[in-house]
Design goal:
Layout lengths: L2 H22 L3 E6 L4 E4 L2 H5 L9 E4 L1 H4 L8 E4 L6 E4 L5 E4 L2 H6 L4 E4 L11 E5 L4 E5 L10 E4 L2 H6 L4 E3 L8 E12 L10 E9 L6 E3 L2 H6 L5 E2 L15 E7 L6 H15 L6
Antiparallel strand pairs: 1-2, 1-16, 2-3, 4-5, 5-6, 6-7, 8-9, 9-10, 10-11, 12-13, 13-14, 14-15
């Protein structure tokens, strides 16, 4: 077998492996609670099994060991184009982490914007929007646009806190928002004007009542709250539930965005390791 053929087969092998990993794993969701703990859920299906008294998540950041710095965060999100995680703390600062691992350990935090989401610009929740590559946030009752959905077309705009557009809505009591690169099927609650219908949810919120709810699109999210799928009862992720109150959440695909680089490194290493055979 000559070197070229060996490299070709190595490429196929690594490609198949990386592709299998990509499609065999579901997205992972990280939820920060009011104590500063972070819990990992292997998809919406696992989150949906949580109850008011039983936490089905995996504790991946123990605040009693790592500190309760995150307990009052306004939200957190991951830029899925880069893998960078952004926290919006109680002071309205935007703090970035190179990846999820650094976020969980509060390693090498970088404040990229100071005092942005504070006062009349405070938020209930913020998220990356995988369908546009931008971001969005929801404002609480104490702000200029209570309950509205602010949309930012780019990271640069998100860091200024000045939205490119606003959808008038009524979510001033919600707890958090996040976008999931995976979709979860369900049927909306509906009413006379907005009949119930099957959707593939990709945008999620926890309202003041504490349920986990999903929407198919930002347009549906802004149009009417009955376009939602309720994946849990009330009080499970917030409200008055005894388990904990959620503060922030974000989802990342598995493998994470940096995995492509890992696959490329694996390929290069495999190819370069193949010795040339003498003829």
């Amino acid at each position: 077998m000559n070197w070229f053929r060996a490299c070709f087969l190595s490429t196929i092998t690594v490609g198949i492996f990386c592709g299998a990993v990509e499609y065999a794993a579901a997205g992972v969701i990280y939820v920060t609670d009011s104590l500063g703990n972070v819990w990992q859920y292997n998809g919406i299906t696992q989150m949906s099994t949580q109850t008011q008294t039983s936490n089905t998540g995996i504790l991946v950041r123990d605040a009693s060991v790592a500190g309760n710095t995150y307990k009052d965060d306004q939200d957190a999100t991951a830029d899925l184009s880069t893998g960078i995680v952004y926290r919006i703390n109680s002071a309205g600062d935007i703090i970035s982490y190179l990846n999820v691992s650094n976020y969980l350990t509060n390693t090498a935090p970088l404040t990229v914007a100071t005092g942005i989401y504070t006062g009349n610009k405070a938020i209930n929740g913020a998220s990356y929007d995988g369908n546009t590559g931008g971001f969005y946030s929801v404002s609480p009752a104490s702000t200029t646009n209570p309950g509205d959905i602010a949309r930012y077309n780019s990271l640069a705009t998100f860091l200024t806190g000045v939205p490119d557009s606003v959808i008038v809505a009524g979510y001033n009591g919600n707890v958090l928002n996040f976008y999931d690169p995976d979709t979860t099927p369900g049927t909306t609650v509906g009413n006379t004007n907005f009949p119930s219908h099957a959707i593939n949810a990709q945008y999620y919120q926890v309202p003041g009542g504490g349920a986990l709810e999903g929407f198919e699109s930002i347009a549906d999210y802004g149009a009417n709250a009955v376009n939602r799928v309720a994946f849990t009862p009330n009080n499970v992720f917030g409200g008055t539930g005894p388990t904990y109150q959620a503060r922030a959440a974000f989802a990342v695909p598995v493998p994470e965005p940096t995995s492509l680089a890992v696959c490329l490194i694996a390929f290069c290493g495999t190819a370069l390791a193949r010795p040339r055979q003498r003829r």
